[in-house]
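Look at one record.

>
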Amino acid sequence: MPRSPRIDFPGLPHHLIVRGNDRQRIFFSDDDRLHFLKCLGEARAVRGCEVHSFVLMSNHVHVLATPRAQFAASRMMQDVGREYVRRVNKMHRRTGTLFEGRFRSSMVETRRYFLACMRYIEMNPVRAGIVPLPRSFEWSSHGQNITGEPGGLLTPHPEYLNLGRDAIERAQFYGRLFNEPQDDDEIAVIRRGVTQGRAVGSEDYCEEVTRFLGRQVKFVPRGRPPDLSPFTGKKGSDPF
């Protein structure tokens, strides 16, 4: 059965995940992580993508990015994978596949889920028990975003800029987002979106994307009554 094409909608945020083949490690040293970020920075500039948030875990990577042209996000991730794997195989004298066959992606509604997705991404090391606080993890965008004025690889999204009138206000507001545990239902929505390759957002948002793409992008829960919201349900384990 052919796989569904990825959701690709220019101008709107996309949550992207690339994982190690069979959940194996994709980073073997800090130099590898630095090189991955270098590849990501070069690819997003060439392909026309704005990166808002990321985290480099041992066997997978999350990126929240806005493509400025159709297929830009896919081409960016393909560029990164090709260049990164070539170097890692050479440096570590390995051969064969490093990444899963396809990266995963979902679209994220700006108004409701953009900041929630940033928080979900940057809290990955905390949920995994690696660090007690997101600021303690070196290989994520949190250290930049918590300043209120991110730069370098990151491009602040308008939703992020609206957190405050200046960097100080934005830093204070953004920091408060991490003071309380993230809602379990919110986490479940974000996970299912990227796992199923669906849009994450309101009914109106999903219908708009469906009309644009000409195919269904909403969750289609199995065994649930039709009057239930597609964004509620059982809480699952965190595969990412």
Summary: The longest helix spans residues 72-91. The longest strand covers residues 49-56. Confidence is low (pLDDT under 50) at residues 220-240.
